[in-house]
Amino acid sequence: MVEKKSNILWHEATVQKEQRQKSNAHKSCVIWFTGLSGAGKSTLANALDLTLFDFGMKTYVLDGDNIRHGLNKDLCFSNEDRKENIRRIGEVAKLFVGAGTIVSTAFISPFQEDRNSVREILEVGEFIEVFVKCGLDECERRDVKGFYKKARSGTIPSFTGISSPYEEPERPELVIDTEQKTIEESVQKVLSYLRVNGIIH
Q1: Does residue 154 fall inside a structural domain?
Q2: What is the tally of structural domains in the chain?
Q3: In terms of Cα–Cα distance, which of 117, 119, 112, 113 is closest to 168?
């Protein structure tokens, strides 16, 4: 393990997070969508993002597949690499929060410990864990890319929900059942939470 260099110091930004939030007329936060592949995380994150953007808010979506094309393209799907994947995303998401942005993340993020680690690097109220709930059978039915079929045949090893575990959130801020709610209803549920908790008006 490489020892952390003692000459690396944290530099405080001249423009503070609170100033950016005041300029944006909303608070910043991480909306962390977690759930099985096919549960609807990316669809919901992008639908919410579009709604907030149309309201004139500063937003961004960090999507699991997209991040693995660039920032995390050196990582595989071992438990260790999954952990590092989430650690990096947490740090990037924190930067977005510092920039006054509402950032939605769409990652399976199967382990509670890793999600908790991201929560811990943010201030209270800045990490909103949203469990995108969907039964395995329905996730497989939605799987147009055939990932579950490949996982069951052994072509894709360590696939969450089949050959690798998924730990459901212990105390998420929100649970959204995408088998029961439409995208529009799901977006409204998240918006309601953001308004009640003073993140948006």
Answers
A1: no
A2: 1
A3: 112
CA distances from 1 to 4, 40, 71, 87 (A): 9, 37, 21, 17
Domain that holds residue 176: 24-136+166-196
State the sign of the Cα–Cα–Cα–Cα dihedral 45, 49, 52, 57. positive
Residue among 28, 42, 104, 109 flagged as catalytic? 109
Q: Is the pLDDT at 1 greater than 70, yes or no?
A: no
**Each residue's pLDDT tens digit, 55-108:** 999 999 998 777 777 778 888 878 888 888 899 999 999 999 999 999 999 999
- 122 lies in some domain: yes
109 in catalytic set = yes
Q: Quick check: is 144 in a domain?
A: no
pTM listed for this prediction: 0.91
In 17-45, which positions are buried (b, 16+ CB within 10 angstroms) versus exposed (e)?
beebbeebebbbbbbbbbbbbbbbbbbbb
